[in-house]
Every structure is written in structure tokens, then in C-alpha cells.
């Protein structure tokens, strides 16, 4: 039997049979973001009328908490915190995929209509069919993929160019917004109010059903994105260069488009369309890692941190968990866009 020695060097993990190259700074960023997201999750679980310190939360999760804390932590608060992490992770990764495919920072699913398609499909299930968690998830997936197919076909002209995909997606987003308004008009007042709260992006009353929905999307689709991450980097160089390096551009683009749409749809099904996370997470991750390429894993962990921190802020600042987390991400996203525009103007790029 041959000696299967593992050699670890700066940015390279190699054995006799295979090798893996990685960016050390990006790896450290991922670990740091994951730790920060876990800390935000622990603080969020401890926040509420029944206040718990971080050590008490950790002990309760380990099965040795204060009397009566297990029901509050495990059954009431942990599902909400897990949904925040899982949804943020999926949205961040989907945003990195779409922005890389379109080679445009505005090419995130909530701008190009893919998120709106998932939202419209979920609203059809909620308002017209009075669907539960499973029906809402199916509606979101169907709506997201139907929108993806329509946008892809309308943007096709001897291939799909990034700018065409963004422009067609913005048009599709406007049409879907009108369809959503029509669904509100058709609904009774109770369902319309429920749908309006859900459409802002909310983690209120999340349970283990939503955790399973978000986790299922990640388990099925994250490996697809990670396997194709190198191809995604080559696609950023242009279709001709990618084809010369052995990467089929349209087939790879279609596969990643499906994976990103699926991640978006499952995230929307679990928590609603939380705004700006998919757009901001990849840009912030790229600034932190200072690495070229899509940065799919750093963007995913950045998204998890953003949603977890926003959930913590809704509870700490307002003193209530009833405020939809989408309100916080929307305000923060608007401030981030204003800061980014000011920085671009100072640099004379706009």
C-alpha cells in the first residue's frame, strides 16, 4: 500500500493523487465570518423577555441550561436563528453567482427579477391556495424557475450577455411587481396583511419547517456551486477564453443559473425576499478578501452574518422581535448604496 502523504504549503494542499489550491486570506475571512455569525446567533437567541446570557445559551444548547430555558431556546428561538444563518448563506452565495455570471454588481437576484419570481410563486401558494410551508416552498421554486426560463430566453441572442440578462431581469421584476399587487387586490384583508409582512422579509414565527426548507436548498445546491466555482472564475474572463480553457460557456452558465435560482427560491420560501443581502454580501466579501473571482464561500458567510446581525438588531434596538428583518436590511442596504455612490463619485468613476 502506497504512502498517502499529505503536503500542506502556503495556499496548496496536495497528496499523491490530488491537489487543492486555496487562498489563505479568503479561508481566514470565511472562518472569521462564520465565528461572528455564530456569536450573533447566540446573542439573538438570548434576547427577549426571558433574557439569557451567552454562556447560558451555550449551556442550554449543550443540554445543561437553567430550568425552563430548553423550551424557549430549542423550540422558540433556535429555529429563527438557524433560518437567519441558512437564508443569509444561500442569498449571499446566490448573489455571488449572479453577479459573477452577469459581471455586474447590480446582477443580484433581487434586482434581476429572480427573487421577485420566487416571491410571486410563493404568494400564489399563500393567497390563492392557502398553502403551508411545503406548498409555499414549491410555489417559490416554480415561480423562480419560471422567471429564470423566461429571462434566459428573452436575453438569448447567440448566447446570453450579462447586460442583457440584467436589463431583461429588471423588466421582468417590474412585471412581477404588478402581478404581486394584483394578488394583494384579490386577497382578503387577513391574507393580504400576512403576505405584506412576509414580502418585506421576516423571521417572525419561524419554526423547524422553515429550517428544513432552507437546509434542503443548501444541501442540494451548495455542492453544485462549489464544484463549478472554478468554471465561474473562467467565465468572468469571457466566453472565448473559457471555451479555450475547456469550459462550455452556455452549459456552465445555465447550470449555475439554475443553482442560483434554486438557492434564491428556497431562501425566499423560508423567510421571504429579504432585500439587499444578495447584492451587498458579494461586494463586501470581495472588499474583505481582496481576491478576484466570485468569492462564493466568503459571500455566503457574509450573507449569513448580515442576516444574523440584522435579526439581532431588530430585537435589540426595537426591544421586540416583531419588526421584519427586511426593514433593517433595507435601511442598511440603502445607506450602503449611498456610501458606495459617494465613494465612486469621489474616485471620478461616475
Describe this structure in words.
Helix content is 73%, strand content 3%. By secondary structure, the chain is mainly α. It has one domain (7-346): ABC transporter involved in vitamin B12 uptake, BtuC (Orthogonal Bundle), CATH 1.10.3470. A hairpin with a 4-residue loop joins strand 2 (12-14) and strand 3 (19-21). Helix 1 runs antiparallel to helix 3 (69-102), helix 3 (69-102) runs parallel beside helix 8 and helix 3 (69-102) packs across helix 12 (277-289). The longest helix is centred in the first third of the chain and has 34 residues, at 69-102. The mean pLDDT is 83.
Strand order of the largest sheet: 1-2-3
Percentage of helical residues?
over 70%
Distance between the termini: 62 Å
On the 0 to 100 scale, the average pLDDT is 83
Unreliable sequence segments = none
Helix and strand content put the structural class at mainly alpha
CA-atom Rg in angstroms: 21 Å
User: What is the CATH homologous superfamily assignment?
Assistant: ABC transporter involved in vitamin B12 uptake, BtuC
> Beta-strand level of the residues, as a percent range?
under 5%
Largest sheet: number of strands, sense, barrel closure: 3 strands, antiparallel
Write down the CATH topology: ABC transporter involved in vitamin B12 uptake, BtuC
CATH class: Mainly Alpha
Shape: globular
Number of domain units: 1
Number of helices: 14
Order of helices and strands: EEEHHHHHHHHHHHHHH
Could you say what the CATH architecture is?
Orthogonal Bundle
How many β-strand runs? 3
Amino acid at each position: 500500500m502506497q504512502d498517502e502523504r499529505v503536503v500542506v504549503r502556503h495556499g496548496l494542499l496536495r497528496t499523491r493523487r490530488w491537489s487543492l489550491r486555496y487562498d489563505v486570506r479568503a479561508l481566514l475571512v470565511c472562518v472569521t465570518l462564520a465565528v461572528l455569525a455564530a456569536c450573533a446567533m447566540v446573542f439573538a437567541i438570548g434576547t427577549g423577555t426571558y433574557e439569557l446570557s451567552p454562556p447560558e445559551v451555550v449551556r442550554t444548547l449543550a443540554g445543561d441550561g437553567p430550568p425552563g430555558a430548553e423550551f424557549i431556546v430549542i423550540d422558540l428561538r433556535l429555529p429563527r436563528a438557524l433560518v437567519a444563518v441558512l437564508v443569509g448563506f444561500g442569498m449571499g452565495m446566490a448573489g455571488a453567482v449572479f453577479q459573477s455570471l452577469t459581471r455586474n454588481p447590480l446582477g443580484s437576484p433581487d434586482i434581476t427579477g429572480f427573487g421577485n419570481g420566487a416571491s410571486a410563486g410563493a404568494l400564489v401558494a399563500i393567497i390563492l391556495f392557502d398553502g403551508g410551508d411545503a406548498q409555499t416552498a414549491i410555489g417559490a421554486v416554480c415561480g423562480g424557475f419560471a422567471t429564470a426560463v423566461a429571462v434566459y430566453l428573452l436575453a438569448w441572442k447567440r448566447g446570453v450577455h450579462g447586460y442583457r440578462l440584467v436589463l431583461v431581469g429588471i423588466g421582468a421584476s417590474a412585471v412581477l411587481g404588478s402581478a404581486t399587487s394584483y394578488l394583494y387586490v384579490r386577497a382578503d384583508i387577513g391574507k393580504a396583511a400576512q403576505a405584506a409582512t412576509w414580502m418585506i422579509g421576516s423571521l417572525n414565527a419561524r419554526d423547524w419547517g422553515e429550517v428544513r426548507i432552507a437546509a434542503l436548498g443548501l444541501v442540494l445546491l451548495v455542492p453544485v456551486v462549489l464544484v463549478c466555482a472554478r468554471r465561474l472564475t473562467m467565465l468572468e474572463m469571457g466566453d472565448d477564453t473559457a471555451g479555450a480553457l475547456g469550459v462550455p460557456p452556455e452549459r456552465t452558465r445555465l447550470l449555475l443559473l439554475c443553482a442560483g435560482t434554486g438557492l434564491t427560491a428556497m431562501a425566499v420560501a423560508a423567510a421571504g425576499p429579504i432585500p439587499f443581502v444578495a447584492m451587498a454580501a458579494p461586494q463586501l466579501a470581495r472588499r474583505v478578501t481582496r481576491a478576484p473571482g466570485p468569492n462564493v464561500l466568503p459571500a455566503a458567510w457574509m450573507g449569513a452574518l448580515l442576516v444574523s446581525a440584522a435579526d439581532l438588531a431588530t430585537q435589540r434596538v426595537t426591544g421586540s422581535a416583531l419588526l421584519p428583518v427586511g426593514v433593517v436590511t433595507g435601511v442598511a442596504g440603502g445607506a450602503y448604496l449611498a456610501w458606495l455612490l459617494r465613494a465612486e463619485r469621489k474616485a471620478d468613476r461616475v
